[in-house]
Design a protein that fits this description.
The structure is a single chain. The protein has 300 residues and is mostly helical. It has helices at residues 20-33, 41-45, 51-62, 73-86, 90-95, 102-126, 155-162, 183-190, 200-203, 219-226, 245-250, 255-259, 264-269, 271-276, 281-291; strands at residues 229-230, 234-235. The protein has a two-stranded antiparallel ribbon. A hairpin with a 3-residue loop joins strand 1 and strand 2 (234-235). Helix 8 packs across helix 15. The chain binds a DNA duplex (21 and 21 nucleotides) through helix 3 and helix 6. Keywords: Activator, DNA-binding, Nucleus, Repeat, Transcription, Transcription regulation. One of its GO terms (molecular function) is DNA binding.
Length: 300
DNA sequence: AAACCATGCAACCGCAGCATC
DNA sequence: TGATGCTGCGGTTGCATGGTT
């Protein structure tokens, strides 16, 4: 048995690239209903996909707050450092890069970073130990010569991972003490002053045709946000911050947690969310400046 | 201009772990 | 307690594009 089996007419599931219409259906459905069970999402949303495919599409492409585009130097350094510590734990690495997906990081690793460190390793073989550290990491000269070897974590890697500084280690709850994508970040990523609520994929020049441009905005959400209304009608209140920066950062407050199973609109209107937080516009703005300093991925 | 190759990215596949019955 | 279903993760593949010959 297991879960109550969702009615599954043995429909042939569509595969391949997603059409704009499919994207729109999925997006609309999740924004309205959330997802409590992925296997029921395609059925209820009228999609001929399997739940797995829907989940992947949402996580990697449609989910609000996704940063897309060129990886910044800082992000690359973070990936390199975390990969050295964690190995191919892409999902864990992604947790430390707000707005990036594990798939995106994995792709970037295989297409670029892996070669980068191999080249560096070759260089360091040619010109023996030096302190030059083009990667900017204090220990980057310790990179294995070939990270493909660490695709399966070696004992060494495992023991290294166990010595990961506390800040990088998940807490008891399986959470990292580094910030995930905060709701505030998620908001402002796509809702900069004067901007509507869109996925960055839509605002960036696409390289491939299959970067669909969904021109339809989530108008309801967009209007909610643009009106400055949030949390069941509460206005953002300046100078009423109840949380320090560190408190905000240490809060387990990421978008996934909020939307899962509830639906975005419910999330936006939810009392629990509203009562728990009083936002300070300036603070949020500054926080995002801090987080994305130098991340001029739009212009690169 | 055409064929070939390299690259980047989206999506699929298979597995492990967990939840439920 | 085993069977079954679901989710999440990492590895891999397939395709579109751009560059090179």
């Amino acid at each position: 048995m297991g879960y109550k089996s969702v009615e599954k007419p043995k429909a042939k599931h569509r595969k391949g690239l997603w059409s704009p219409d499919e994207d729109q259906r999925l997006r609309n459905y999740i924004l309205k209903h959330g997802y409590s069970c992925w296997s029921s999402v395609p059925i209820n949303a009228g999609l001929q996909r399997n739940g797995k495919s829907c989940r992947l599409r949402w996580i990697n492409y449609l989910r609000p707050g996704l940063k897309r585009g060129v990886f910044t130097v800082q992000e690359e350094e973070t990936i390199l450092n975390l990969h050295r510590l964690l190995g191919n734990k892409w999902s864990q690495i992604a947790q430390h890069l707000p707005g990036r997906t594990d798939n995106e990081i994995k792709n970037h690793w295989h297409s670029y970073l892996k070669k980068k460190i191999n080249v560096k390793a070759d260089d360091s073989h040619l010109q023996m130990p030096s302190n030059s550290d083009s990667l900017g990491s204090p220990n980057s000269t310790d990179f294995p010569t070939d990270h493909t070897q660490s695709d399966d974590m070696t004992e060494h890697t495992k023991s290294s991972a166990s010595q990961i500084p506390k800040i990088l280690n998940p807490t008891k709850e399986g959470q990292s003490s580094l910030p995930k994508l905060l709701f505030a970040e998620w908001l402002s990523l796509d809702n900069s002053p004067g901007e509507s609520f869109t996925n960055h994929a839509e605002s960036q020049a696409p390289r491939h045709d299959h970067y669909y441009h969904s021109s339809s905005q989530d108008s309801l959400v967009s209007s909610l946000l643009n009106e400055g209304t949030f949390c069941g009608g509460h206005q953002y209140q300046n100078n009423q911050s109840e949380f320090s920066t560190s408190e905000i950062y240490s809060s387990r407050f990421n978008f996934e947690d909020q939307i899962s199973g509830k639906g975005l609109l419910q999330c936006l209107y939810g009392d629990d969310l509203c009562s728990a937080f009083s936002f300070d516009n300036d603070m949020l703005y500054n926080e995002n400046l801090f987080n994305y300093q130098g991340c001029n991925y739009e212009g690169e």
